[in-house]
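Whiteboard transcription, Tuesday session. T.W. wrote the structure tokens on the left side:
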């Protein structure tokens, strides 16, 4: 069987490259999460729960800035017929640089109001320094996007792991020395600088130069205007829980919540990291509406992706409480119930994860935005209502219901591109419901304790 897999992975055909790229991406993501776990376990002993709460606030703000200004450069390079054109790539790189400096200015201006919202005065100092990562990221070469466009993931994987490992060592060293949030802020800056240098030195391809081609700018804006709106909604989907829940919990409780989120979100983050890189090129070069053969081929890939992610999610949901008890000191035990609830709530999102790239593959960023916008509105409403009715458990349960409520819009998107597979969805919905029920039953005591807390 191993020989058959190796044989299938050889060659330069689309499916062979997709298999190699997806395997490398999964391996790279998994290895990075192992390193993150090691860092997390060490840092929770060197620092204190409030430090993770404050850093989560910094992360939410910077992520929001980045997503509220995303013009879709990376997906545009992946999708565009000019994705290998030096003028197009250099123009995209120039836009990234301008955006990075603009975001740093906004971060400096908003640092004080954000510190008032979260009730953490020290954010006035942390945010402007941490936001320098946005300036640095603007200079990162477009060769990263070119490698993803052509499903060349090997060197990206090695470099990503090197950056992660170096960042871990620096974070632990700074935490041991400073014993403050500055350890996390400064290690983030170091990792961004290292990425800039290593990608420029070791990724093959175009060496970017400043360029402003009007035709390329027009194409990027036309495609990117819907991506911009989609990423605004994406921020709401991915960070609304931290914004809403962060205002509900104390800083220490928020730090514990983020420990739980770190574990529970692993399967979904893996899917978000790997699926677009895998499915967008497949949808682009093998559209499901073009032939029955294409549909069957894509359905087979989709089954493997969903099955793998659901299996991983089940392990996290069922054994999350045990993992927290085994790895963390008593200050963090409440994170166990958070792991189970978040993992169960994300099951509907995992099942539909491989559909939305069908729209981006053909440049239909408007339909992609419509789906993301509906999901964002539903999630915010569910978080607010759930928190007001039942606190933290209500917020997390509400998220799962919001994912379910957005499913009809996902069908609308997938059917339009000939990608919808109802048998896939029904099969994995039943499996997911069973696994979720088992996880809730096994960990019901920890979940009840959350409500009491």
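and on the right, the sequence the group agreed on:
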């Amino acid at each position: 069987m191993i020989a058959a897999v190796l044989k299938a992975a050889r060659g330069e055909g689309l499916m062979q490259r997709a298999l190699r790229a997806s395997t490398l991406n999964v391996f790279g993501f998994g290895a990075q999460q192992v390193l993150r776990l090691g860092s997390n376990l060490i840092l929770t002993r060197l620092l204190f729960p409030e430090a993770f709460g404050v850093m989560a606030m910094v992360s939410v703000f910077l992520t929001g800035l980045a997503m509220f200004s995303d013009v879709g450069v990376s997906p545009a390079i992946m999708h565009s017929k000019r994705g290998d054109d030096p003028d197009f790539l250099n123009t995209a790189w120039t836009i990234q640089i301008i955006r990075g400096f603009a975001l740093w200015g906004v971060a400096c201006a908003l640092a004080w109001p954000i510190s008032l919202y979260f009730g953490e005065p020290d954010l006035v100092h942390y945010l402007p320094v941490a936001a320098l990562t946005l300036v640095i990221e603007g200079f990162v070469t477009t060769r990263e996007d070119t490698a993803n466009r052509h499903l060349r993931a090997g060197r990206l994987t090695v470099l990503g792991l090197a950056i992660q490992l170096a960042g871990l060592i620096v974070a632990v060293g700074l935490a041991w020395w400073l014993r403050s949030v500055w350890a996390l802020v400064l290690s983030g800056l170091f990792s961004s600088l290292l990425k800039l240098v290593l990608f420029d030195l070791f990724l093959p391809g175009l060496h970017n130069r400043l360029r402003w081609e009007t035709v390329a700018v027009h194409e990027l804006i036309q495609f990117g205007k819907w991506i911009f709106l989609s990423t605004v909604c994406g921020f709401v989907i991915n960070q609304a829980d931290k914004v809403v829940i962060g205002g509900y919990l104390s800083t220490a409780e928020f730090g514990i919540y983020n420990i739980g989120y770190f574990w529970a979100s692993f399967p979904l983050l893996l899917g978000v990291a790997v699926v677009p890189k895998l499915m967008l090129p497949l949808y682009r070069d093998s559209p499901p509406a073009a032939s029955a053969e294409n549909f069957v081929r894509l359905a087979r890939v989709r089954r493997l992706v969903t099955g793998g992610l659901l299996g991983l999610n089940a392990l996290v949901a069922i054994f999350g409480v045990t993992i927290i008890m085994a790895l963390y000191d008593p200050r963090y035990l409440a994170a166990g119930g958070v792991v189970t609830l978040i993992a169960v709530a994300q099951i509907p999102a995992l099942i539909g994860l491989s559909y939305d790239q069908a729209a981006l593959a053909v440049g239909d960023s408007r339909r992609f935005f419509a789906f993301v916008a509906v999901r964002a509105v539903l999630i915010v409403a569910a978080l607010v209502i759930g928190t007001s009715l039942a606190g933290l458990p209500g917020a997390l349960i509400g998220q799962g219901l919001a994912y379910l409520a957005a499913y009809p819009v996902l069908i609308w998107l997938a059917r339009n591109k000939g990608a919808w597979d109802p048998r896939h969805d029904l099969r994995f919905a039943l499996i997911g419901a069973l696994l979720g029920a088992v996880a809730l039953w096994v960990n019901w005591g920890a979940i009840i304790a959350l409500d009491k807390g």
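Someone added at the bottom: Confidence is low (pLDDT under 50) at residues 1-9.
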